[in-house]
Amino acid sequence: MKHLAVAFGLSLSVLTSPAWALGAGDDDSERLARWKEIQTSIFGERKLEATEAMVKIDAPNRAMDASLVPITLTMPEKDKITGLHLVIDDNPSPYAAKFTFGPAADPGEIKLRVRVNNYTNIHAIAETKDGKLLETVKFVKASGGCSAPMGMTDEEAMKGMGEMRMKFAGDAAPGKPMEATLMIRHPNFSGMQMNQVTRDYTPARYITKVEVSRGSSNVFTLDGDISISSNPVIGFSFVPEGKEPIRVVAIDNQNGRWEHSFTAPAVSN
Amino acid sequence: MGFLSGRAARAIVAIAGSLLLMAAGPADSPVNVPEPDGLWTGPARGYTPATLQGATVLDLDSLDALIAKEKPVLLDVSLEDHRPKGFPENRPWLPTHRSLPGSVWMPGAGAAPLDPAAEAVLLARIAALTAGDRTRAVVAFCRPECWGSWNLGKRLVQQGYTNVFWFPEGIEGWQDRHPTVATKPDPDWEARPKPVRGEGAQR
Lengths: 269, 203
Fold this sequence. Notes:
The structure holds 2 protein chains of 2 kinds. By secondary structure, chain A is mostly beta strands. In chain A, about 10% of the residues lie in helices and about 35% in strands. Chain A has one domain: SoxY domain (Immunoglobulin-like, Sandwich), CATH 2.60.40. The longest helix of chain A is centred in the first third of the chain and has 16 residues, at about 30-45. The termini of chain A are far apart. The radius of gyration of chain B is 18 Å and the shape is globular. The interface between A and B is large, with 51 and 43 residues.
């Protein structure tokens, strides 16, 4: 592999990346070159360090449904984390999601469901308070997720668009992060899905931003993309202190805006 | 899936289950799809027949054997990724297509009807790739549940090619066992005259 490293001008940190061990059988140098291209388009000249210490990806090796691939991102040293980027390398729009965590967040774990267009490396990049970017990678076998039709008419898929639900796990206790699951009804049309009857592409309609906050305190802001599955489901945690409801504002690329508030279990004194 | 409600989880399992059935490959199609008389002009995506009269249907084992034996011409007619209209200029849009090594990718060449100019380019290109030898082995493929490769196989049979193969499992089937390579569309096919049309059709 030495000659490849020379060819692509790689730093040592990249060579130690698990990418080399994954996607075995496929052309690793091609995949790495692509990752470099994507990385530069998102992070410019900023340096990325490969490590599993700051962020881990849990995803099925082979997804049952490429348009609904569950991803869990775990950040063991959560107190150091300010942001999280998710990149699905071989998707045509690879930059799937960016999470920015606020003071009310407990950024130990994020769950979401994504579309995967082809057998691909998935990269997660954690951003730390001291300005570091720490990347990890996992190879996932799934294909066709971005263009898979939803199996219903566009009108049916848009029914109830913007409705939300939030589920809280367990009781609130001081110092114990509260887990929550946000469900948003929205087709998140990728713009790559063909209507089987008209043979036209259903126009892209996808959630570009989700802001979750409590009182004046931000939990997280998600910048979304067409790679997020229809009817987004986002698992997150927040610090249990506070009495205000959890407020969610979602915005899509067609100027849709929806706002809902949810009463969280309160810490009993 | 523990974070979903029971109802949502059941719905997802049901959906995933039905998609799994669809992904099982044309030979296992839950419906018996008859061969159309000529080219298929319906939706490009859907269950395909188990057969193609005048051609041989390949599974992965028989494709491997064919490649080892006589280096067939490999023709990929998978559709290109469609850039969503109005997709923000400032976000990376980097479509990539991974296909069988050595294959020639002519996106959308399995469409029917194909306008006459495009059809002429397609047939000339295949004639060049087979060096005018209509007994040369040619394999048509795209993805599972894709009529494009069935149509290309049909076209070749209609054109008098006598050693036509159809590999319905396509790229998905191939990459189960073998590496794929990033592949660019065939330049001659890309240079074909394109009729002016609205967004969508034939892409």
